[in-house]
Design a protein that fits this description.
FAD/NAD(P)-binding domain; Polyamine Oxidase, Chain A, domain 2; 20% strand; binds flavin-adenine dinucleotide
Length: 432
């Protein structure tokens, strides 16, 4: 018997379990795979390379949502010092990423007139109410006051900050909400020293004080009696608990519960989450390619990159250098090899344009396709007000967390934030 069973050991499940264990609750974390981390997996391989499932950063660094979880645990994420040398790829060139209004006013990426329009757009974003714009796209928002082809071509950069570059698809409310928080915080992204592996190590340490993590143990059924949860049947046993947190992508919960017991709107939502996938390649070189330490984002091509070993030499064995590049695959990608090849060619052509000698120096590359970039792509239909709540309205003791439910922020932040919300509800309701 546990106090709380948590299904899934990604950012969300591990955060919730650590917070509950910190509050003295006996937790059991069930993880179907052999490794914690989910879509943010990170580990050191036998050759001494830190392998990340796509190079994870934390928006707003020490002022961000991931660090809020750590603060509640009495910890701080150990972020690498901010290097402020982030870059953008635009029109086949590498540019300094503009920082703040002065940066946008001075950037040579755009004509002077376009810079003024962009600044006016940013000023409007700063004042806008996100709640009024969740159901509209960024392009809708832009078009209500502006019309300038250069600025319109630059809009994907604003969407890319929340990993949804299509301005006619991304929710304006989500972009506004994130940019307002970023402007107020006045910090960029934070890279955790040692990668996500360190994040998970700290969370595991807290969990293990009061609970257990069961790897290779898949939840197969959530047991419900008289309208409330009583336990979970797994691939190995039946475990009982009065509270259960489902911490994997929402569509997967439909396999574990008699669907007639779940709210119809939630089922509908889970079935209609749009997939977004990407191709991610780790490149290893025997010589440094550049001294850039911060990230690189594409403006007119949905690319992102990081030269991890420049910022954190612990990522590679001595004398080796690693960078990770990702390119988004078209929406609804279904595994077609031809599409992967096209994306790889586009990515490598871009790399060859901005770093001409790079690919000749590569001594090893690891290629992975990552399905569902951010379980929840932040379109108007999947924006915060429409995502299901963290507490099930029909089944007592059942909670949902992760980046497909209603947390704050975007990408992994939604997982960290929804974990805190569910934990607050459980601790508020439980009398110990
Ligand atoms: C390439 C890439 C780069 C990214 N970069 C960033 C970034 O820089 N910053 C950022 O904030 N976000 C980033 N994201 C998004 C981020 O990875 C996700 O938002 C986050 O990892 C989701 O965590 P989660 O805990 O909600 O879900 P998941 O990580 O999906 O965890 C769910 C876990 O549940 C397990 N599970 C599923 N079913 C069962 C079952 N029946 N029984 C037991 N276990 C089960 C799964 O194996 C998995 O481990 C990136 C994503 C990708 C793919």
């Amino acid at each position: 018997m546990a106090d709380v069973i948590i299904i899934g050991a990604g950012y969300a499940g591990m955060s919730a379990a650590a917070l509950l264990a910190h509050a003295g609750r006996k937790v059991v974390v069930l993880e179907a795979s052999g490794m914690i981390g989910g879509r943010a997996q990170s580990y050191r391989d036998e050759q001494g390379y830190t392998r990340e499932y796509g190079a994870h950063s934390h928006r707003l660094a020490h002022k961000g949502i991931a660090n809020e979880v750590f603060k509640r645990l009495g910890e701080e994420i150990d972020f690498l010092p901010e290097t402020k040398d982030a870059k953008l790829i635009f029109k086949g060139r590498l540019w300094e990423r503009p920082e703040g209004p002065m940066g946008f006013l001075r950037t040579p990426m755009l004509s002077f007139r376009a810079r003024l329009v962009l600044l006016a757009l940013l000023a409007r974003i700063k004042k806008a109410d996100p709640a009024a714009w969740y159901d509209k796209t960024l392009l809708d928002f832009y078009k209500t006051s502006f019309q300038h082809p250069e600025v319109e071509a630059f809009l994907p950069f604003l969407g890319m900050t929340i990993m949804c570059p299509d301005s006619d698809k991304v929710s304006a409310g989500e972009v506004i909400d994130f940019l307002q928080r970023a402007l107020a915080a006045d910090v960029g992204v934070g890279e955790p020293r040692g990668g996500s592996a360190r994040i998970f190590l700290t969370l595991s340490k807290h969990i293990e004080q009061e609970g257990q993590i069961h790897l290779h143990e898949k939840a197969e059924e959530i047991i419900i009696e008289n309208g409330r949860v009583t336990g979970v049947k797994t691939s190995k046993a039946t475990i009982h608990a009065p509270d259960i947190i489902f911490a994997a992508r929402l569509p997967l919960v439909l396999e574990l519960i008699d669907n007639s017991l779940l709210p119809a709107a939630m089922i509908d939502y889970a079935k209609n989450i749009e997939n977004s996938s990407s191709l991610v390649i780790d490149f290893i070189t025997g010589k440094p390619i550049t001294s850039i330490c911060s990230g690189i984002l594409g403006v007119d091509i949905p690319i992102w990159a990081r030269f991890q070993s420049n910022a954190d030499s612990s990522f590679t064995p001595s004398g080796k250098y690693m960078s990770t590049w990702g390119i988004m695959l078209p929406w609804h990608f279904d595994g077609d090899e031809k599409i992967v090849l096209e994306a790889e060619t586009k990515l490598k052509n871009t790399i060859a344009t901005v770093f001409p000698d790079f690919l000749k120096r590569v001594i090893e590359e690891r290629k992975i396709i990552v399905p569902v970039m951010n379980g929840n792509v932040l379109t108007p239909a999947h924006s915060k007000p429409h995502r299901p709540d963290t507490q099930c309205s029909l089944i007592q003791g059942l909670y949902f967390i992760g980046d497909t439910v209603r947390g704050d922020g975007c990408s992994g932040d939604i997982s960290f934030s929804s974990a805190m919300k569910a934990v607050d509800k459980i601790l508020g309701a439980q009398i110990k």
